[in-house]
Amino acid sequence: LTFFLIFHFVSHSNILMIDSLRLAQSLNTGNQFQDNFYYGLNKKAIGDYNEAIMAFHSCLELIPENPTVLFLIGDLYLKDKSYDLAEKNLKKSISLDPNNFWFKEKLYRMYIEKGDFNQAIKILKSLTHKSIDFKNELVDLYFKTGDFDLALDMIEILDTKYGYSEFRNRVKIDICKNASICKDSFEDKESRETSI
User: With contact defined as beta carbons under 8 Å apart, do 45 and 25 qualify?
Assistant: First the structure.
């Protein structure tokens, strides 16, 4: 799965870059946008985030509503742990390209990094169709936020559709040990624990 996500991210990044460069050409910005864009990518690659941010802002002066450039700026602010600026730019990129999986996934990861699980849940719900891993992450976030009923409901749905998993079984056991909200009596707890 990791290789798959990395491959698609690299492929998608190239598509976004090409789309941005085509847009710049169609708007007749000359080579200025392209030069700033590649300069920003170069600076990002070597870890000079401030210089990269300045280069991408120069791109925005030429094409103010470019979702790819806004995403790249948000990503750079995230690397610098400037969460408010990262969130602002990532949200703007999503508003301009609302179906972009990678933009949403980056915002989700930012919320996880800063510990804002409730906001992470809102974004993650729109990503769960991509992978069972995201569904399991949603179970984990429901558990972390104390939404045990939602976690148990999701576990039941996932167990029915995909079969039991060690991770979901452990979450269910932890919920049932520490809360009195289990829907079933969970009498077969020992047999589930031995199956883990």
Answer: no
How far, in Å, CA of 29 to CA of 21, rounded? Answer: 10
Q: Indicate the DSSP class of residue 46.
A: T
User: Is the pLDDT at 189 greater than 50, yes or no?
Assistant: no
pLDDT at 6 over 70: no
Residue with tokens 């990395």: 6
Q: Is 92 exposed, middle or buried (0-12, 13-18, 19+ CB in 10 A)?
A: middle
Which residue matches tokens 């210089």?
A: 51
**Torsion sign over Cα 125, 127, 130, 134:** negative
What pLDDT shows up at residue 29? Answer: 57
Other CB atoms closer than 10 Å to residue 172's CB: what's the count? 24
Sign of CA dihedral 158, 163, 165, 169: positive
